[in-house]
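User: I'm curious whether this sequence folds into something compact or stays loose and floppy. Could you predict its structure so I can see for myself?
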Amino acid sequence: MYAIVDIETTGGHASANGITEIAVLIHDGNHVVRHYETLINPGIPVPVYIRALTGIHDGMLADAPEFKDVASEIYELLCDKIFVAHNVNFDYSFLKHHLSLYGFDLQCKKLCTVRLCRKIFPGLSSYSLGKLCSHLNILNDSRHRAAGDAKATATLFTLLLQKDSSGYVNLLLNGKLKEQQLPPGLCRDDIDALPSTPGVYYFKDSKGRVIYVGKAVNIKKRVVSHFTGNNPGRQRQEFLKNICSVSYEPCGTELMAFILEAIEIKRLWPSNNRAMKRYEQLYGLYSYEDQRGYSRLMIDKRRKNSFPLFSFNSLSEGRNILMSLVRKFELCPKLCFIQVNNDPCTGISNHYCRGVCEGNELYEDYNARVAESISYLKVSSPSFLLVDKGRNNDEKGVILMEQGNLYGMGYVPSAHPVTDLGAVKVLLNPCPSNDYIRNLILDHASRFPWKVVSKSKEEAIAVSNIQPEFLV
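Assistant: Here's the prediction. I'll summarize afterward.
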């Protein structure tokens, strides 16, 4: 038995909206054998745009039952049936969420008439219920009302059962076709075209605008994973509703996919990517001149519109690097805020501070060493290649770091020598660099030193240890 369902709601996601009307038609595979419908008081005002669309207003719902009053009856209607709806995931997510609030766990097999129509009536310009009714001469004299749309869906479903010579209904019910998990606007062909390789994928809306960029070790598997579950939240429901196509860019490795994703999010600024937009490292190395004219180095939290000399993931990372500068260039730990108590300077007792904190050094001499330390920090950042798998056996994936920043990445023929950084550089696509990308690459280089090609033995050691004295 099938339960053909249509609901009207106060909004597009279940977690913050209510149901205003429901119709359930029980279908035995040939025709409707039972009809249930009721208005429901959602307990919140009906928004103006919903009133305009459905004609349902607060006055109509004042004396209607609340959902808790009909939850048991609705559950009994649905629990042992196959749940059928036009864009089934919307109706199912609403009812599953609201039934769960009153102790009912809805677990039904689902059928989506949008998906069935795409299989049985391929090639139509639109699969909205209104356009399908017009194309197939199905009468619907009460559009955007639960009873009218449910009756039209029941007529459509009867026709689909009659035309289903390929057995798509059974394939969907038995899990042979996973199409019902897909957003209503997304074609199965887009999913079938995806590779099971590393890369970056792009979800696009009906106008072709990119609304989400993601990375994956297995593009197809990761894309499909977005469509599992029944999360009733606004963000997920709006996201799924707007997906109309997906494209991809293959990458040789997961690292290259990570980098490309970060670049593309900054370039395209998709509406559904949030975490990467907000990413920035928490601490920075800053320089300023105090009232006496002495240059001061310090590690501090990064703040909006601040411009640190270098950035770090953690306070300890920054302090370790600053301490290395202090020792190498004989700077004062007190002037660098490493020692913040009133005790005698530890730098003097350990023979690397020249006594600037006690007035024993002119600011010109001290500032010169501070400037030298900053210059050294910049030029000491390593330049190297990361050489790894390409997109196929005929190529290698290459990432070039210059002085601690990403220059570019790309693919070179497998037979091409990679010992000369300059010769490889001309074959790569330049890329923007930032703290996130730089640390991804440096961390990868430290974990896989055999992938590193450097200009000198010293830099190779520095990269493999990821502890050259001043590596950022």
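Summary: The radius of gyration is 32 Å. Confidence is low (pLDDT under 50) at residues 464-472.
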